[in-house]
Write the structure tokens for this entry.
Amino acid sequence: MKTQVAIIGAGPSGLLLGQLLHKQGIENVILEKVSPDYVLGRIRAGVLEQGFVDLMREAGVAERMDSEGEIHDGFEIALNGVRNRIDLKGLTGGNTVIVYGQTELTRDLMDARTKTNQTTHYQVNDVQPHDMLEEHPYVTYESGGKQYKLECDYIAGSDGFHGVSRKSIPKDCITEYERLYPGGWLGLLSDTPPVNPELVYIRHERGFALCSLRSQTRSRYYLQVGKNDKIEDWNDERFWEELKRRLPKDLADKLITGPSIEKSIAPMRSFVVDPMQYGRLFLLGDAAHIVPPTGAKGLNTAASDVYTLYTILTKVYGQGKTELLKEYSKICLRRIWDGERFSWWMSNMLHKFEETSAFNEKIYNSEIEYYLNSDAGRRVIAEQYVGLPYDNVE
Ligand code: RFL
Ligand code: PHB
């Protein structure tokens, strides 16, 4: 078997890259470890920057996102019971974000791939990239008891944080930067009307909370939980009680609760690998970097990697500009570190970690109060939340 670009992983990064390359006439095959239903069952991101939205449009898969996604002009940060609005549109000269679930956009990308008869092999095992430093790399895998070899020009490693792509690079060729946070996010999805039409991020002495949504009838709430907490410790009743405690009073009074349709705990981690490439293997999205979810940057930083690789490969195949290939990592990492810094900062400002000294707690409280009470401070938050521009690829 032969293709131009072998893509490992059918998450949003791999699927979006595949669709964009297909639009440019660049053939690709996706290899995915689990089933389509399993991929769609993972409830994750909800907030899309303009850059992501533009890529979905360029890929020709934006119809449902444009009709069902909600444009958000602002969001709130509640500090010790007081609500503060960040007017994204006003503070950034007209920029906004779109609330549209990762599950939905993944479904749209999968459907587009099926309609255009592109190949995705689901439930394949032992995926392994080979000869990444050679001119003719290939990927081997097992499916239905048979071994396969997929020859290609380039390999896109978009198989998430636990995937095989990054692990295939010799340790002495990369540097990994990591910060683990003591605790995680417990998320609950319910078919109840959201407590507020816009997102509310909450700093509270009992810990961080977030009120998010998928639509005006479906809510997504999160609570910061301890590092040893397990999902079994949190029945729905305990979740709602704790959320009410952390909400500003007016919101607590109007919170509508209901049975959860999904509940999971996500760890909080900052992670970057440098460089994000090894010969003809290019890492994208969570395979190369992770952020704690506080700034809503995970999927959005993945999108800028997709943009960069897609633009480079289009110029390589269309204009023979192979010299651009070695620029991939450098172009991606500049913007990635912006996303890492913002997510780390938002996490520090809004969470309560046991390891933080009483002095630092006071400093964080003072710092976020300062930002929220200053026009310049709110603008700094708004500009990063809507997403910094993509770097030129040339
Ligand atoms: P994914 O989504 O992890 O997809 C990787 C795919 O690769 C497959 N795979 C393999 N396939 C073949 N062989 C192997 N050996 C393989 N190993 C793995 C996996 O099965 C999977 O299908 O990575 P991708 O595509 O880079 O996408 C990244 C995003 O999923 C992630 O960054 C975001 O979800 C992060 N995130 C958020 N990002 C935002 O931009 N805005 C948000 O509001 C936001 N909220 C969130 C989030 C992540 C969360 N969790 C659970 C970590 C909220 C949460 C709670
Ligand atoms: C979500 O809706 O899942 C969500 C929104 C904003 C975040 C993280 C997650 O910062």
The longest helix spans residues 328-350. The mean pLDDT is 96. Residues 45-47, 199, 212, 220, 293-294, 296 surround P-hydroxybenzoic acid (ligand 2) (CB under 6 Å). The chain is about 35% helix and 25% strand.
